Amino acid sequence: MGRKYVTVSVKIPKEIKDRLERAGISPSKVMKEALINTLKEIELKELMKEVNELENVLAKISVEKIVESIREDRER
User: Fold this and answer.
1) Where along the chain do its domains lie?
2) How far apart are CA 43 and CA 62, in angstroms?
3) What is the pTM of this model?
4) Which of 8, 52, 65, 66 has its C-alpha lying 20 to 30 A from 37's C-alpha?
5) CA triple 31-33-37, angle to 5 deg
6) pLDDT (tens digit, 0 to 9) for every residue of the chain, 76 residues total?
7) Rounded Cα gap, residues 20 and 64, in angstroms
8) DSSP code of 18?
């Protein structure tokens, strides 16, 4: 299945657009990259939160219990 795209627009002062283009910078490319990077940062923060929550849960399990569980699994 192909990707679906939507158009997102933003108004900026013409002077800014002109200066970016003179510098060889595509405003749409910069905006696309900024949105993608922002989303990556948000997802990374969410993932780190989940990792921290899992660490708290795992910290409550003793090494002895883990070893015992592994031995039980091997015996089955």
Assistant:
1) 14-75
2) 31
3) 0.65
4) 52
5) 115
6) 788 999 999 999 999 999 999 999 999 999 999 999 999 999 999 999 999 988 888 888 888 888 888 888 888 8
7) 62
8) H
